[in-house]
Fold:
Amino acid sequence: MAILLAWKIEPSSPPHERILPSTLAGAFTGGSIGGVIRGRANVIPGMIMFSLFGYAGQHAYNYLDRTQPWNNTVVLAKNTDPSAVYDKMNIETPEKQPLWKRVLNSKYSPMKVLSDKQYEGLLREKLVGVEAEIAMVDEKIINAKAKATAEADAVRDRQERKVER
Structure:
């Protein structure tokens, strides 16, 4: 973050300007951690690995950010208001969501953010399923009781016939 501030990288700067600072920040972090934790022989390998992690991570972030619906192929000038571009293109200005919501709503996530109405609907579906299972179990109990009483009546009839003989 300090490197980004030192180079005066602004949030509106193009994504390719963020790759070098992220790589250098990763190298500094990896060298520091490697030197402190594992000794000075691991400074260079730590710098190399963490710079690769910073480079790859920034590239991945840039790619994922570019694929979001609010980032069209329109290249904005540094001081251009994105809503003005959307107005020119007759597109509704999308609402930017926090990162955790974007991750959970992606098609690759096993989890999903639900609104209260969606959650209520899901619970109602499950409740209907549970009620159906309860009805099936009640029906089985009634059938079992009827069968048991029929068998008991049959046994009683047999015993009465034996007694009569």
In short: The CA atoms of residues 141 and 147 lie 10 Å apart. The longest helix spans residues 116-164. Helices lie at 2-6, 19-38, 43-66, 82-88, 99-105, 116-164.
